[in-house]
Design a protein that fits this description.
Elements (H helix, E strand, L loop, with lengths): L2 E5 L4 H12 L3 E5 L14 H10 L4 E3 L6 H11 L3 E4 L6 H6 L1 H21 L4 E5 L26 H19 L4 E5 L24 H9 L20
Parallel strand pairs: 1-2, 1-4, 2-3, 4-5, 5-6
Length: about 240
């Protein structure tokens, strides 16, 4: 059976991708450093446990940072993945302005590590979790893949996604055997139909719907709405 290495598998998008990959009949080796996910008892995060309950399949999990090349190399050597789905990243736009070096080191460094180890073990397929923020200021709608990217990225997080796409392009030019796909997300929301996994970030949510959900269940006291000139009956 084909084995997929999924980074960031305990996070919001990563957990749903992991369920889909398992349901499609692949084996999964999941890795996550649990910076954006609840780590549980330190062995298997709750999200990974719930993935196993949803799919009825076992998941091999490692709590590691993907920038750690030695640990990544150990996983490749032991499990021989056939492809990589790279979702792991620091992802808060506002935070990236405050700590840009951390974002560049983590988001770009993790991709470089994976590509180097993939080359060493002759793994030639990677799906990269990018962002719609690479489009910057929108020039026309509907947006398609011919829309310019990178010209007006508004924060360091967006820039890391753009830089990583460029790294993938350059690497594919140099290595004709490498196949890379970049998925550009537009603010995904929702949860698995089982209700077992969804967006449950560590710290304040960066997405509006996630914030609303936390207010609805009483985790947060209120949702602040800023401004009083909206096109509604009372301006709010």
């Amino acid at each position: 059976m084909t084995t997929a290495l999924i980074t960031g598998a305990a996070g919001y998008i990563g957990s749903h991708i992991t369920v889909a990959v398992l349901d499609a009949g692949y084996n999964v080796v999941a890795v996550d450093n649990c910076v954006n996910a609840i780590s549980g008892d330190g062995t298997i995060p709750p999200a990974i446990q719930r993935i196993q309950e949803i799919t009825g399949k076992a998941v091999i999990f490692y709590k590691i940072d993907v920038v750690d090349k030695d640990r990544v190399r150990e996983i490749f050597s032991k499990h021989k993945p056939d492809c990589v789905i790279h979702v792991a990243a620091l992802k808060k736009m506002g935070e990236s302005v405050d700590i840009p070096l951390e974002y560049h080191c983590n988001n770009i460094g993790s991709l470089l590590t994976l590509l180097e180890v993939m080359k060493e073990f002759n793994v030639t397929k990677i799906i990269y979790s990018s962002s719609s923020l690479v489009y910057g200021n929108i020039e026309y709608i509907p947006i398609d893949e011919r829309h310019p990217v990178g010209k007006s990225c508004t924060n360091p997080y967006a820039k890391t996604k753009y830089f990583c796409e460029e790294i993938l392009k350059d690497t594919c030019v140099a290595n004709k055997d490498l196949t890379a796909v970049a998925l550009r997300y537009f603010s995904p929301v929702g949860a698995h139909e089982s209700g077992q996994i969804g967006e449950d970030p560590v710290g304040p949510p960066s997405q509006l719907v996630a914030f609303i959900c936390q207010v609805a269940i009483g985790r947060r006291p209120q949702l602040n709405v800023f401004g009083n000139d909206f096109n509604t009956a009372d301006g709010t």
